[in-house]
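User: Continuing from earlier, I have the next pair ready.

Assistant: Great, send them over.

User: Here they are, in order.

Assistant: Folding the first of the pair now:
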Amino acid sequence: MTARSRTAKVDRATLPLFYVSLLLALLKRAGARFREEPIDWSDPGDSKVVPGLDALRMAAGLWRLRRRMG
């Protein structure tokens, strides 16, 4: 497997995880403005989030996104 195909495979696997971050980054680059709004949230108790691991994955994905966007 070449590095390029390996990267494409990883990108396809992680795209759903980082889609919102990518979309927001592209919109900001295009000049969009954002406003944060509070939400009411409650923990349903059946979350599949692994706090430490998922935080590291998100940080790595955001770092890759920032590097690619320059």
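And the other member of the pair:
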Amino acid sequence: MGASVVKKASVVYGLVLATVLRIIIPFRVGSNALNECTNCTAAVVTYFSAASRVLFILTTLFLLSISLADLTADWISVAYIPLLIYMMSWTYYSLFEQMKNVEESYEGFMNELAHYWWSNDTYWFNLEKKLQCCGLGGPRTYMEYLRKVPGHCYNPQLITLGCGQMVHDLLDPMLRIGRLMRIITLAIELYLLYFYGVIVCKKLASLIAERHPNKNVSKPLLNKSR
């Protein structure tokens, strides 16, 4: 039984770890744009690390409870119900706050880019050269404000991707995946709460049936005829 539980836990842990790393590693090292937004990177990594820890804990508790169910006659489920309720509350508020940090860091960086677009040509030109992008929303940003498109925006042809759009294309999917991961985590916790609740209800019904059995004992008919 123990070997089976360890094997199942290893499979689940591997899947969770692979999913999280598949998100974090490309996000962290896949583009130079992320190095310009250290707060964004830190917030995203912190969020997905917290979500993965919750999934690890849920998996461990579930497999542990299954392995101990026979030893405790399923009564261990009673202890897991308040623990799950606490974890659901913690998951919702903790991941909500961390997702809020991701969104705020993203919005702050976009506002910072817009500010540099107007006030710091040196920073902006260096950013365009480094990221291979042009303008805030593409070359049209220069044209809309009657500014000349700089020569480094041709490499050798005109670069059409704006720096703001590049950052948006990197961070926006992370926001969507993060929200989806929070919903999935809460759904798993709700399912486990339902799972343990059903077990406890069945145990209570079984105890009630044992203490108050139906006694349908038929009384023998008295033969009054003699």
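Worth noting for the second one:
Residues 2-119+174-208 form one domain. Residues 216-226 have pLDDT under 50 and may be disordered.
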